[in-house]
Amino acid sequence: MFQNRAEAFALALPAAIFAAAVFIVPVLILLSDGFRSLDGGWTLAAYGEFFSSPLNQAVFLRTLKLGALVTVVSAVIGYAAAFSIVSLSPAAKGRMTGLVVLPLMISPVARTYAWIVILGRTGIVNQAFQVLGLSEAPLRILFSETAIFIGLLQLFLPLMIISLISALENMPKDAVPAARVLGANWFQVFWKVILPLTKEGLVIGGTLVFTGCLTAYITPAILGGSKVLMLETLMYQQVAVSNNFVAASVIACILIVMSFAANLLLKRVATARNTQRKAAR
Amino acid sequence: MKTLITASAAVLLATTGLAQAQEKTLTISVYALAQDEYKQIVYDPFQAICGCKLVVETGNSVERVAKMEANKANPVIDMAVVSMADALSASRKDLTDTIDTAKLKSFNALYDIAKDPNQDGKSVGYTFYANSIVYRSDKMKIESWADLFKPEYVGHIAFPNITTNGAAPTLYMLGQALGKDTPDLAAPIATIGENKDEIVTFYEKSSQLVQLMKQEEIWAAPAGRFAWAPFTKLGLPMAWATPKEGQAGGMNVMVVTKGSKNRDLALQFMDFWLSTEIQTKLAEKLVDSPANSEVKVSDEIAGNLTFGKATAESLKFIPSAVALDNRAGWIKTWNDKVGQ
Amino acid sequence: MTARSLFVPTTLFLLATFLIGPFLIIVAASFSAGETLSFPPQGFSLQWILKVFTVESFRASFAMSMFLAIGGTAAALVLGIPASYALSRYRLPGAEIIRTIVSAPIIVPGIIVGLSLLRYVVVPFGVGITLALFLAHTALILPYAVRVVSASLDNLRSDIEEAAVLLGSSRLGAFFRVVMPNIKGGILSAFILGFVTSFNQVPVSLFLSGPGVRTLPIDMMAYMEIVFDPSVAALSSLLAFLSIGIVFAAERFLGFSRYV
């Protein structure tokens, strides 16, 4: 460790000043707009007004609901996937991990665009359903919560799987066999052994997925449109169409609070683990 | 690493270099429709005449006014085309300038309704259009605006979102069909609300409709006549409804941004666009119905447009002031009844 | 036992289908001979791949996106490497605050970053559109740059540069001669991560794009609203292969995944 403070500041401050100037300060001003009254005082009126609209309530709840649902489902699929991948030979594991990471490199516009072809009335899913006799008339899937859910799940599932793979790999190798020898069934093994030991990975993955859903704009815009708004698309509409910057500021604040809450949770779990480890030493 | 930086510097230089090479730049903001045709008929020939560079931004009308307001102190756009009501809204917000019509050679040839649609001297109509319903003639038959909401049809329609130009005229005609045509549009909006789960989507731009129709996601949608041409090229049996309640009128107008540094160039561009020659070419390609009364086209072309004096006079226009004064109320009713 | 041995392949097959399937459909659709985006594709042709190169706005927005991705990432590294070094090697008062400030753009939804920048920097100070996009993309990449470079600095023992300094090298000389060669893999990883993030970014650029200045993904979204032919699919495939190619090359020659 070097001690020279002036040098340290000279190195670190340009980045900090840049981030503050083009990012922190403008965002803080934007957020403060939502708390100003017409005469320049401070007020929560905009928030009351925002939440009094049934449309906004519905959009807020939908955003929470879809975020939570995508997180939970990606955790369930994520465990099955991560467990399978970890059980592979090292070479196969490397290839499979690559395959999971691959979609992250592809433009979300392209990935979302594909769902139009797949989920449309004349799309593959409906063609398959009709061939299999599962439905008589083509189902309407586009422009629905289902479409957004599928799009978001595909977008963020890789983040959950990667977090869980590293968590499963860090788990003591003998924990599962030991529990099996002691007579636990697979459900008990998962609940009593795997889950507690991989909790940290689950929380990291969960936070990434949940914040991802909050910040995704393209998926709700293309697969939901103005019929099924989420907070991100509602915010764009408030600015671009209604020119209502106060409402936009309120939505921004809600999104940031939700995002920070999720990140705080992450930090707390991580710190709790560190203190436990330190205590154990 | 070094090569990457050099490469990015080269790209930067190339972009700024290009910008400097052009002396005069006119920035316009228009609808996204038929940009290929506009480029060929209007933009490229105009650039050749004026020796200037034309920068074109596209988007919908309300978005444009919102952007003009956001950039009020430092206007980015010189000239824009917007809906009649948005032109009044922009003029009330003092975003637009009085148009010196003496500089528009074709001004006197315009249909009377296009000369000064909002009676404030700040806009000139360049095209007007009928609002009706475009539909699959093999799947349905539309004789009234209310037919859209027949149970067997409603799961296959898209409706204009309340924020678009098409919403108010469509709701107004729907109100007439329902026999409840109050300026607050309460009855038609309530009807939409009752059917909101069935309606496929609420569209923002009529250009999206072609795609939805092609995918068979929808069979019918209320639309402006300006959007008609692409549907005829789909290879599907498409028809334009003539509902018994009549067709609503819509008009798009040109405005000049207040504080624009290229006012004369903007007026020169408007004059070019309004001329009989250009308006005829646009009409022949079914891009815009002419506002210039000297335009002559074949009967077949006329049949695909909103053409002629008699048609112009039959359209039911909502006065801009009525639209503006009620708009906030419409949006609120819509959000309460439809939005959730 | 059979149930278990079936579980792994079935899971992996379904997973691969869900994650990669949509991408394969896009690729297949881009070689279609038909006029509309559909699957299974109607015939085989290269017309849509070729059409991508003839759309003028795609060329302009591709150049813009390239400039933002390369320039923005380079700028983020110029700011981020010294900051990472200070955070990792110095006893810096308020280090946590600086770390939070620098990494904040990652937590805040991009649409908010774009709007704030437009309202309170671009409009009041009359910043040009290109510069605004450049600033926004740099801010967006900075957190990744600091995170990845910090990680590789933390993996490098600090006593070697202390030894270099004791042996008479200047601090700066020690950095360039001892530290840089050892973290160049990390820097390149940060560069690739930043490049991909910036290139695929939509929400930040949404409000900042202006007349004639658009990034490629924004241009694609606007284009696909109007034109429903497979050319957007073709462009998507081309871009995907570009990103995948870069990442594979990096992985093959440098072991990219060690740093991310």
Commentary on this structure:
The complex is a heterotrimer of chains A (281), B (340) and C (260). Chain A has 281 residues and is mainly α. Chain A has one domain: MetI-like (MetI-like fold, Orthogonal Bundle), CATH 1.10.3720. Helix content of chain A is 77%, strand content 0%. In chain A, helix 8 packs antiparallel against helix 9 and helix 9 runs antiparallel to helix 12. Chain A starts with a helix and ends with a helix. Chain B is an alpha/beta fold. Chain B has two domains: 170 residues, Periplasmic binding protein-like II (D-Maltodextrin-Binding Protein, domain 2), CATH 3.40.190; 141 residues, 3-Layer(aba) Sandwich (D-Maltodextrin-Binding Protein, domain 2). In chain B, helix 7 crosses helix 8 and helix 8 runs parallel beside helix 15. Chain C is mainly alpha-helical. Chain C has a single domain, classed as MetI-like fold (Orthogonal Bundle). Chain C is 77% helix and 0% strand. In chain C, helix 2 crosses helix 11, helix 3 crosses helix 6 and helix 8 runs antiparallel to helix 11. The model of chain C has no long low-confidence stretch (mean pLDDT 86). The chains are: A mainly alpha (281), B alpha/beta (340), C mainly alpha (260). The interface between A and C is large, with 80 and 78 residues.
- Quickly count the domains of chain C: 1
Shape of chain B: globular
Query: What is the tally of beta strands of chain C?
Result: 0
**Rg calculated over all Cα atoms of chain B:** 21 Å
- Going by helix content, strand content and strand pairing, the class of chain C is mainly alpha
CATH structural fold name of the largest domain in chain B: D-Maltodextrin-Binding Protein, domain 2
| The CATH C-level class name of chain C | Mainly Alpha
Assign the CATH class of the largest domain in chain B: Alpha Beta
The number of helical segments of chain C is 11
Extended strand count of chain B: 9
Largest sheet of chain C: none
Tell the overall outline of chain C: globular
How would you characterize the largest beta sheet of chain B?
Answer: 7 strands, mixed
Helix content of chain B: 40-55%
Kindly name the structural category of chain B.
alpha/beta
Oligomer: heterotrimer
First-residue to last-residue Cα separation of chain C: 37 Å
List keywords for this structure.
heterotrimer, A: 281 residues, mainly alpha, MetI-like fold, 77% helix, B: 340 residues, alpha/beta, D-Maltodextrin-Binding Protein, domain 2, 7-stranded mixed β-sheet, two-stranded parallel sheet, 16% strand
